[in-house]
Amino acid sequence: MSDEQQADLPYGSPSSDPSNAVYRSQVGGVCFEATEHTDRMSRIADRVAEAGVRVPDFHEALMEAGELTVRFRSARERAVAHWNAVTRELVIDPLHGDVRDDKDRLAGVALFGILDAASEGERAGWEQYTQPGYADYIDEWAEREGMTAAGYYGREMERIDFDNVQRHRRIMACLGRAGTGADHLRDLPGDFDSFYAMRCRPGAGGEAPHVETYRLRYEALRPGPVIVRQRGPVD
Q1: What predicted TM-score, i.e. pTM, was given to this entire model?
Q2: What is the pLDDT of residues 92-136, one digit of tens each?
Q3: C-alpha to C-alpha distances, 2 to 83, 145, 207, nearest whole angstrom
Q4: At residue 68, what are phi and psi to the nearest 5 degrees?
Q5: Are strands 89-92 and 81-84 parallel, antiparallel or unpaired?
Q6: Which of 37, 65, 153, 206 makes a 20 to 30 Å CA pair with 198?
Q7: How far from 192 is each of 161, 173, 184, 228, CA to CA, in Å?
Q8: 36 CB contacts (<8 Å, ≥6 apart)?
Q9: Residue partners of 65: CB distance under 8 A and separation at least 6
Q10: How far apart are CA 7 and CA 211, in angstroms?
């Protein structure tokens, strides 16, 4: 990586307030804050800084992600982590059973969360196709493949997730951590068709398929009833 690239990633010295035990650090536009488990947050910041310097692909993701804050607290739907595009927060649960005893996995989760944030612009582009003046495009694309517009949108959102999984694997390999706890996505399918089929299956406890979240979001974003365009002349 060039000196210019490294200059784009200022790694601020960690700071703390002894009275409140606050940890703060910054890598590029990513701010790390914690009032508990500060050693874990410090380790995450170190791993993000390392990846930003050593892996051009992750350096690019940091630039794409822009300004955001990484914080510890319970994540949505009992997940290890979630990205909130509205508050610009990557929320991670450091006590979740999947990461409580695995600091490497915790760092891997944080790296993937930043990749998720970096994809926000791509998701926003697809959300445009829910709006008047653009919705006809997705209707037509979906019809060509025998899908509903919501189903087509959901599949393309899953494709973004899949691309991030592959990107995460490449980053782990570049860091020499392939096959470690940090490489926590290594067992997911390596081709999109298999990945998408997995995301369309109900959860082990009977939960709705992962893709259903995206389908419901499309329907919520698209104003008014979905009108099926008629083909050919109309009397």
Answers
A1: 0.85
A2: 999 999 999 999 999 999 999 999 999 999 999 999 999 998 999
A3: 30, 45, 47
A4: -155, 165
A5: antiparallel
A6: 65
A7: 10, 20, 18, 29
A8: 21, 72
A9: 29, 30, 114, 117, 118, 120
A10: 39
204-225, pLDDT tens digit by residue? 778 899 999 999 999 999 986 5
Cα separation, 223 vs 21, whole angstroms: 47
Pick the range with the lowest mean pLDDT from 108-117, 167-176, 223-232: 223-232
Sheet of 81-84, strands arranged across: 15-17, 22-27, 30-34, 68-72, 89-92, 81-84
DSSP three-state, residue 25 = strand
Give the CA distances from residue 112 to residues 28, 167, 230, in Å, rounded to whole numbers and listed in that order: 16, 9, 43
Asked if residue 29 lies in contact with residue 52, where contact means CB atoms within 8 angstroms, the answer is no
- CA–CA dist 82, 74 (Å, integer): 9
Whether 122 and 152 have beta carbons less than 8 Å apart is answered as no
